Amino acid sequence: MLTVGGLVRCRVLQPRARDVLSRWASPVLPLTCTTESSVRPASGSGGASAAGGWYGSLSDSAPVHLCENFLVSAHQVTGLPWWLSIAMATASIRTCITLPLAAYQLIIIAKVEALQSEISELAKRLRFEVSLRGREQGWTDKQSRVQFQKNLRRLVSQLYVRDNCHPFKASLLVWVQLPLWVGLSLALRNLSLDRPGRGSCTALHGELAAGGALWFPDLTVPDSTWVLPVCLGLTNLLILEVFSLQRVGASRFQRLVLNGFRGFSVLMIPIAASVPSSMALYWFCSSLVGFGHNLLLRSPTVRRTVGLPAPQSKTPYRDLLSAFISKYWR
């Protein structure tokens, strides 16, 4: 439930790009249609109007249209069916953008964890010095605590600057991945809209309507079988369980947060069943690729390559499987 370079602020492809793409497929279709039309429902009983206000503005924003252009270009350049084009575009974005950020996040976390012993020693010495100074100055217990916390924060910040590992840098992945996820989701929603009277948009809608496979032949309607939504929920739960196996002796707050994410993963199942299959397919592929990246970054060879500390075990995958089996099958 997830990657990114600089975004070029444009609504349509440049003329040179069109000339190149025309050799592979039909000309790139301009994506300037508004989102005021309706989504094609599974029952065929008439669409629901697109939400106005901030949601309509977000759906019609330049970054979302850029994501639309990227998806259309990827489809036309590769010549793949829409369902496979969405899967390949998702894998490429997550591999080229979020995988390096995930590795960088692990590097920052490893540096912060390596500082914990030094921070503990500094805290002990600082507490002793503050207690001595407090007796000399006649500080109350509250004043001593304030001085201790103030100076400890200053010392910890100096350590973070020294090792270039401020914890905020570990959140860079979230700040990049979340907007990408929202942008691509809204882009697929816009492409799945039925826009009567607009030739280019209607043509795209027709391609998506015939661009599915297996049990989801129409990517513009929800998956009536619920296979994609259920696969999405199970994949997200699997990611969470693998993550929980890494944490031994988690605090009560960490367990509450983990249970909250579990509940959200279950909630995503009916949500994915109510959106076009193109969106549910993207969400599932994104989670599946993210799970693969999670496993990849456990490899001792990969960790050495990106400068991460070597794992304690030389067989991380076997240990993970053993821990999973012992937790859920014994």
TrEMBL record:
Organism: Poecilia formosa (Amazon molly)
Residue ranges crossing the lipid bilayer per the database entry: 226-244, 256-273, 279-297
Membrane among keywords: yes
Family per similarity comment: Belongs to the OXA1/ALB3/YidC family.
GO BP terms, alphabetized: mitochondrial respiratory chain complex IV assembly; protein insertion into mitochondrial inner membrane from matrix
Gene Ontology CC: mitochondrial inner membrane
Protein name: Cytochrome c oxidase assembly factor COX18
Highest taxon of the lineage: Eukaryota
Alphabetically ordered keywords of this record: Membrane, Transmembrane, Transmembrane helix
CDD domains: 5TM_Oxa1-like
PANTHER family given in the database record: CYTOCHROME C OXIDASE ASSEMBLY PROTEIN COX18, MITOCHONDRIAL, OXA1
Membrane topology qualifier: Multi-pass membrane protein
InterPro entries xrefs: YidC/ALB3/OXA1/COX18 (IPR001708), YidC/Oxa/ALB_C (IPR028055)
Domain Membrane insertase YidC/Oxa/ALB C-terminal: 82-297
Lineage, highest ranks first: Eukaryota, Metazoa, Chordata, Craniata, Vertebrata
Subcellular location: Membrane
Molecular function as annotated in GO: membrane insertase activity
